[in-house]
Design brief:
- Four copies of one chain form a homotetramer.
- Chain A is mainly alpha-helical.
- Chain A has one domain (5-30, 38-186): I/LWEQ domain.
- The first copy, chain A, is built from eight helices and three strands.
- In chain A, helix 2 crosses helix 8 and helix 5 packs parallel to helix 8 (167-185).
- The relative contact order of chain A is 0.11.
- Chains in contact: A-B, A-C, B-C, B-D, C-D.
- The interface between B and C is small, with 4 and 4 residues.
């Protein structure tokens, strides 16, 4: 038995994202001492890590649902996917940088730029997959107008510019993008094929 | 062929846990010198690593059995799972910290807090999965009253508080939680579907 | 259900390549300061990372297609695959080295040598797989004369020698090999078995 | 569709081994300078890495074949497998240590001890799997008398003791164990189920 082409792409991407998460956590590093005051240095690193963890979690979830509804793949899809993974692989670096200099403009702007790159990479992946599967395909209808995708790219661009004016506003914008993606996802429900139907109490729009 | 939704969640979680284990081992670091006395500095790091390795091993095992008996997934399950992985991803940091300061209160308490977070994350994941699959589902019956899950959360909270009084008692409590999970697991036996029935000499409660 | 032997080889190789990519990104490291001038030190590291990322992406893609068209495996194939992974696992080290000394001959030559090793490893893997599957097999016909494989090995050897004369020419040659692999790949299209036929607008040579 | 229990154990173990390999390569580290003389410090690290890479490659291969012929799993098998992974996860540390002090007795002995632990872990895994599957099972017959497994444990113990007398002899013994495992494996051939029969020119004992 062999896995689907889309399955293979997912497994590889999942692997990269799993390592990205753990490398980011590794970069938080334990405090240099064992007193309460030593926790101060760790706190900003921990907070940015939480944000980056959530961002990767969102990508992992959406990436999975996107590929799941796609039937066809080509080399453009594969390179668009690698392009997205490239930007995500830079996330540990900017997370580390922001953790070291949480009050400086350039790291905050760099965080926005890498997020923008990843957002654009995902936007590109969606378009490439739709082109490979056709406008009337399942995946094209599942994606719809991709309003959130477009909005995210715009908000990350705004956050990057804002970093040179006000760091807090910039970070708040990045966090807002993450929240925008988390909340509506909660309505979706999946059932494994060939399994029993959903029990009555868990209402929700079935995706698959 | 595509994998189940639950299978995908498992693969990703397995990837994260595999990297966590190796990163924790990486943090042990070889001794700075090559004399017997240089082993002293490594010993506490090695001991905490053993504990953390066993903890991750237990989560990997239970996580696997939990998802295996689940048929339905939704976004809440996915986020509860990421919440658990978040706490587990902090385990290498506290393991490293305890290894550096094995006799201090704060690192010992932090180890308990991260363990508590992971224990609560698992407790939450169990509840979210049962809610998605229904109270009469296979997974709800397999979990039962989840006495051990509730007890673990309580013991980790106690160990965290105890760390400010007595480090040894605190570590003993953490190790006791691990032992509590290892021992009864040994009775379970699984058979692959479509395989020959178990031979007579390996008695044990079949799970699947 | 069990996966194919070739599938298992792919999954393991995918795992190694996923970690290689993330370790290389980890080695880029954030700037030491937060001023624009601090970006200078990061730029060469980032550029070599882009090259190495693309190289691993190409190997991942070709490795996947090679194993996909293979039906039979033996221990020689497995060791040839490990030989390829060995050279790829050294890529983060030379990427790091070139990033530290972008204008020196030896790191540039070492980058070429490791690339040559990986290129030879892939060349060997192709031959070993064809030998295991037979000259008339699907995989032997899919590979064809393997002109690009032979050419890559030659170009990497030339780039290694050139490093002692002109670094820029050497790096340009390494980048040219990568480009040679990316461009023609874009015409291929895959369809998952049992799925709907490709829509009319996405013309391309179907591989599977 | 869900994967087999044994498949899941394999995937997790493969993930751990993939990260171990890459972490060991990461520990080799590039030379501190860019002159030929700077290569001296890297050479011993590179050589031990080659040995450790081959050792992990052998475990990956044998582990895969062992689990492939097993039908039944239980919690003892799972913990025996984690016990093996524990020792393998310490391999990067001793590899790093030997690379730093190639001429010292203690690191050479530690390398032997960790190898001995892994060898014993594998020996234990084989026994636990046979116990779970029964003496007349496919896996019990595939393993046979496990002469090589017993011999390896003995040779690693001898190498550990020898390290305090002669380092070169000790390393030679470790390398000899690796060679003993590589050579005879080359006769085996696997075919994917449902595929065409092996072509005539690749004679070899079919395993599956």
């Amino acid at each position: 038995m062999k896995l689907d082409e889309t399955e293979r792409l997912e497994t590889f991407s999942d692997g990269v994202m799993a390592v990205i998460i753990t490398i980011m956590a590794f970069n938080v590093k334990p405090p240099a001492g064992s007193a309460f005051t030593d926790l101060h240095e760790v706190l900003p690193r921990l907070l940015v890590y939480v944000l980056s963890f959530v961002v990767v979690g969102i990508y992992w979830n959406n990436h999975h649902q996107l590929l799941r509804s796609a039937d066809r793949m080509n080399a453009s899809v594969m390179w668009a996917n690698l392009f997205l993974l490239f930007w995500l692989s830079l996330l540990p670096i900017v997370t580390d940088w922001v953790g070291s200099f949480p009050n400086r403009a350039l790291p905050a702007a760099a965080y926005g730029m890498i997020s923008l790159g990843a957002g654009f990479g995902y936007w590109l992946l969606v378009r490439t997959i739709i082109r490979a599967n056709g406008r009337s395909s399942h995946v094209a209808q599942a994606v719809g107008s991709d309003l959130k995708g477009n909005l995210s790219v715009g908000l990350y661009a705004a956050g990057t510019a804002l970093a040179f004016v006000n760091r807090v506003a910039s970070y708040a914008l990045y966090a807002a993008v993450a929240l925008m993606w988390i909340i509506p996802d909660r309505r979706l429900t999946w059932t494994n094929p060939g399994q029993s139907p959903p029990p009555a109490q868990s209402g929700g729009d079935s995706l698959d």
